[in-house]
Every structure is written in C-alpha cells, then in structure tokens.
Design brief:
The complex is a heterodimer. Chain A contains eleven helices and no strands. Chain A is an all-alpha fold. The longest helix of chain B has 25 residues. Chain B is elongated. The chains are: A mainly alpha, B mainly alpha. At the A-B interface, α8 and α11 of A face α1 of B.
C-alpha cells in the first residue's frame, strides 16, 4: 500500500494528463474512467483480496468453456477489440501527439516526413509496385534527389540532391576523372559502376569531355574520390527513395 | 584548397549529412547523427594516420 501511495504523485505529474484534449477524446476518457470505477465497485462488493491482488489487481477468473464465457458476458479479445481499451489508447496517443512526445506527424520531421512508426503501410500489389516504385527509382538515379521530391519528401530530396551534385561538380572541378570501364582492368568496372550511380551528370561529363581529368593536377586524386563518392552516395539515396516509395518509411 | 585534411573534412561532412538525413526523421536528430558520423570519420582517420607512424615502413 505504501508503494501505491508513493506512486500517486508520480501519476498526477504525468505530462500527458496535463494536456487539453479534444472533446471526443475527453468523452472517451470519461467513459473509460466510469467503467473502471464500476469495476472497482464490483471488486469492493466482493470483498477484500490478498495483498498481491491489491497490488497487481484482481486476478481474472479462469474460463474453460464457451458457455462459461457467455454466462460471464466475456468478450474474446482475439476476435473483438475492447472498446474501453481502445478509447484509452486513443486518448493517450492523442495526448502524447499533441504534447510532442510521440513522432508521427509530417510537421515534426523534414518537410513531407514519412509516417510515424505507429502507422502501418498498406500492402502494395505488383502493379502498383511496377508503375509507382520503378519510375521513382529511375528518376532518383537519373537526377539525384528527384526520387524523394517525386515522393513528396521535398526538403530531404533537395538537400541530398544538392549535396550529391555539389560533390560531383566539385570532383570534376578538382580535375578528377569520372571513371569509365576499361577493357582488361576489372577494377575500373567497379569504379565505373559506382560513379555511374550519379545518373545523368555522369553521362553529361563524358559527353562534355570533362571525364578524363588532369593527371598532373595536385587535386587529381581528390577529384577522383569525390566523383566516385557522389555516385556511391546517390546509390545509397536510391535505396532510401525505394523505401519511401514502397511506404516502408 | 589542396590540404588533405580539408578534403577529409569535406568527405566526412558529406557522408555524415547523407546518413544523418536518411537514418533520422527529425532534423535535430539528423544533425546530431551527422555530426557524430563526421567527427567519427575525421577522428578515425587521424588515429589511423598516427598509428601508421608505428609501422616499420
């Protein structure tokens, strides 16, 4: 009993309870409290239990048959949701969201942030996957950040795209070369695959004659690293764009 | 700018920003993670470079 008395001030200091709730939520909360009070009155009418029951709450009766469950008017929690519990959960979630405790709204993240962890993405069939995700990934590869922008993650797309394009342009400006596959040199295939991850700028650099770099420049190696890094980072960003397009984030 | 350390910082900051923006939803958390990643990369490179002095080469 001392533990319960000590816990009481902590419960009253809960920040969730100090938030003004909307009227429907208040009604649901009041209904849940009324049902809880009714249950406590029933428990008091039955008589005092053991100390363990007082601390942990009353132990529910064991129901072995469907007839017994029907007689006790017990709802199967596996098939039907308990309305009081749902109302309590909704009240707590709304209070926590309005207090800024739980993430889950677009306003508290990047512009157009992904839904929160409590949201469940709907399953996506193969047709939607083909016509929605594949174009987004292709756009994200062709122009860094465009996959996010198309998926309405505008802030993140602009930031990541500007960063990747700046790195690539910086690498070219530092007289670095943009890797291309060379026959007989297997490592250049890997390097070209990584650098080609930047998309259209990779093609433009080759077409415009900026891909060879200047071997005698002091910043040649730095430029190589930056152009390669831009392509690899865009491939990583592409994976994130895929997750965004499929609703995983 | 031709200093190796400057390019190392640019590299680390770029990687930190990308990973921070992708792995964290809230901008503040993303900035914190990006800072830690950038500092970790710079610090790791400095430690490895000093440790290489001990190699018999």
């Amino acid at each position: 009993m001392e533990l319960i008395e000590q816990a009481a001030p902590i419960e009253s200091a809960n920040p969730i309870e100090s938030v003004d709730l909307p009227e429907p939520v208040q009604q649901a909360q009041a209904q849940a409290e009324a049902e809880l009070l009714a249950e406590q009155e029933v428990a008091e009418s039955v008589g005092p239990g053991t100390d363990a029951e007082a601390f942990w709450g009353a132990v529910p009766p064991v129901i072995e048959t469907a007839e017994a469950a029907e007689a006790l008017n017990v709802v199967d929690p596996t098939t039907t949701a308990d309305t009081a519990t749902l109302a309590e959960s909704a009240a707590i979630a709304a209070a926590a969201s309005s207090a800024g405790i739980v993430e889950g709204t677009a306003e508290d993240g990047f512009p157009g942030a992904a839904p929160g962890p409590m949201d469940v993405a709907a399953p996506m069939d193969s047709t939607v996957l083909m016509w929605r995700v594949v174009p987004i990934c292709l756009l994200g590869w062709a122009v860094p950040g465009l996959g996010h922008i198309v998926s309405r993650r505008i802030g993140r797309g602009v930031l990541l795209g500007a960063l990747v394009l700046s790195l690539f342009a910086g690498g070219v400006a530092l007289q670095g070369k943009v890797y291309r596959p060379i026959e007989g040199e297997p490592l250049t295939y890997l390097a070209a695959l990584g650098a080609a991850g930047v998309g259209v700028p990779y093609v433009l650099a080759h077409l415009g004659g900026y891909a060879e770099g200047d071997l005698m420049s002091a910043t040649f190696d730095y430029g190589n690293t930056f152009t390669l890094l831009a392509g690899l980072l865009n491939l990583l960003i592409l994976l994130d764009a895929y997750d965004v397009a499929t609703g995983r984030r | 700018m031709t200093a190796h350390f400057g390019f190392l910082c640019l590299f680390s900051i770029a990687v930190g920003i990308v990973l921070g923006a992708m792995l964290r939803r809230r901008p503040r958390d993303a900035v914190v993670l990006a800072t830690w990643i950038a500092l970790g990369l710079i610090g790791g490179a400095l430690m490895i470079s000093w440790a290489m002095l001990l190699l018999p080469i």
